[in-house]
Amino acid sequence: MSARAANALPGFDAESVRRDFPILDQQINGHPLVYLDNAATTQKPECVIEAISNYYRRDNANVHRGVHTLSDRATHAFEQARQAVADFLGSPRVEQVIWTSGTTAAINLVAHSWGRSTLRPGDRVLVSWLEHHSNIVPWQLVAAATGAEVIPIPVTDAGEIDLRSLADLLDGRVKMVAVNHVSNALGTVNPVLEIVSMAKAVGALVLVDGAQSVAHWPVDVPALGCDFFVMSGHKLFGPTGVGVLWGREALLEAMPPFMGGGEMIERVAFPTTTFNSLPFKFEAGTPNIAGAIGLAAAIDYLGTIDREAAMAHEAALLARTLELAAEVEGLRRVGTPAHAAGIFSFLLEGTHPSDVGMLLDQQGIAVRTGHHCAQPLMERLGIPGTVRASYSIYNTQEDVSRLFEGIHKAKRLFA
Ligand code: PLP
Prior knowledge:
Elements: H1 3-7, H2 14-18, E1 27-28, E2 31-32, E3 34-35, H3 46-59, H4 69-89, E4 97-100, H5 103-118, E5 124-128, H6 137-146, E6 149-153, H7 163-169, E7 174-180, H8 192-201, E8 205-209, H9 221-224, E9 228-232, E10 243-247, H10 249-254, E11 265-267, E12 274-275, H11 289-302, H12 307-326, E13 331-333, E14 343-348, H13 353-362, E15 365-366, E16 368-370, H14 375-381, E17 386-390, H15 397-414
Parallel strand pairs: 3-15, 5-6, 5-7, 7-8, 8-9
Antiparallel strand pairs: 1-2, 4-10, 9-10, 11-12, 13-14, 14-17, 16-17
This protein binds pyridoxal-5'-phosphate.
Pyridoxal-5'-phosphate binds next to helix 5.
């Protein structure tokens, strides 16, 4: 157990966690920053910033194949980072961890490699109405190329996947079910275990988009039973431009390369080229070495956090938010899922989300407004967008109070 976890008091010292994130200690528009845009990207602790900076100061070199010391060091750190991700996700083998530039790239990799080589006319890919565009559009591109169909899984008015409708859709034509673990727009925690077992019953594969889950609780990916799991470093206190595809080994072995280039080959010749083994087969070109090292530092950092306590802390922030929201006349929470993770999406009667967002920014409060890259969901709910406050481990009850002071001010000015 880490020093901080061992020393954790009952409850959770968000103030102490907050001090690890230098960006949070600043004034925005004359007010102390309240950062509530964590679903878009999380802030970075000092140790992540240092790991990236130290890498560039001391170890920068290209990885693999180098004979010199710097290349050795960079390769070692890069592959250690892969091991850190494998351990973090509970992967049986490190070769199942493929570096990508993020969740979007990881889904595209699966769609274009597995999808193009497997899907046939009449096959179906199910995605829910809750999905981020990055778990819709890659499938549409591949469907257009293969003759397969992308079918949306209905969601209820509460913003939950309708499991009965999913059951009706599942038949032998379905080859892939691709769902998020947590909806970035509403915070819905999807019943992935149940979805996996339903999909498996008809022989379909399951891809879980974990972009929003991994920062909130420890995810044991093999225990989910899915075939692919994808995530982004920047939503997990790591840098932008790095992410991960985790896959079942047999599937990854069978899948053709997605991008060609250096590193992913065994031998290049005319007329045929042979490919490298896993994971390198899918890693053409110079990878984001500093990004991988930064992500490993973020994972190390999370190891110093009592994650059970952090979850309870985030749940308490959301619970207080819902209490305060109930007192604001004209405020409507969008999506009322029974199980939500750290996200509060809402509308304020008589106001436009972007006006509310701008007014909050004037008070130093950063939220996101709009469709949250989930236009089909917004269409399903009959709204153009929402105001979204999303919480992380460093947010405090004071942040929640500040948000509601801002909302009351917006109501006075606009509503
Ligand atoms: N999936 C979900 C659920 C997300 O929230 C996001 C980003 O907001 C993505 C996918 C895309 O992630 P990235 O832009 O890091 O590729």
